[in-house]
From TrEMBL:
Top-rank taxon: Bacteria
Name of the molecule in the record: Flavin reductase like domain-containing protein
Stretches assigned to the Flavin reductase like domain: 1-109
One Pfam family per UniProt: Flavin_Reduct
Coiled coil feature spans: none
GO molecular function ontology, one term from the record: FMN binding
InterPro entries tied to this protein: Flavin_Rdtase-like_dom, Split_barrel_FMN-bd
Source organism (scientific name): Microvirga aerophila
């Protein structure tokens, strides 16, 4: 399972809800500007892939296309779309989309010892506000027994 949230019912959560499918494409340092451009509010029907100058390719299981340059793409079937609430019970203009992963595309160049290498892919992580970081170093932390 994978989930993403959206402040406002923007194109991505609305399309996921209406189609019942979505593709999660992992963003990297080299694709940061294209990822940012894809978040721009565009007129309905305008192709975000064209706008962001991002090559798209067909998915294998779901209808939405995937980003061809992404080191990993996860094809998903929507299991739930939840409008979140404040602790007072008031509905927020924030949505959580949950999907079951039904198809996986991984660029083998980013696989090390049988596992996806997040540092090698230089994955973007959003830190909040307008802040992002690039994952360059990974460490393991085992849970206590």
């Amino acid at each position: 399972m994978i989930a993403f949230s959206s402040e406002g019912l923007k194109d991505t959560p609305r399309n996921a809800r209406d189609m019942g499918e979505f593709v999660f494409n992992l963003a990297t340092e080299s694709s940061a500007e294209q990822m940012n451009r894809s978040s721009e509010r565009l007129p309905e029907g305008h192709d975000e892939f064209v706008h962001a100058q991002t090559p798209a390719g067909p998915s294998q299981v779901v209808r939405p296309p995937r980003v061809l340059g992404s080191p990993a793409s996860l094809e998903c079937i929507v299991t739930d779309v939840v409008q979140l609430r404040a602790n007072s019970g008031r509905e927020l203009d924030t949505y959580l989309v949950i999907g079951e992963v039904v198809g996986v595309h991984i660029n083998e160049a980013f696989v090390t010892e049988g596992r996806f290498d997040t540092a090698k892919a230089q994955v973007l992580a959003r830190c909040g506000y307008h802040d992002y970081t690039v994952v360059r170093e990974i460490f393991q932390m085992l849970r206590p027994e």
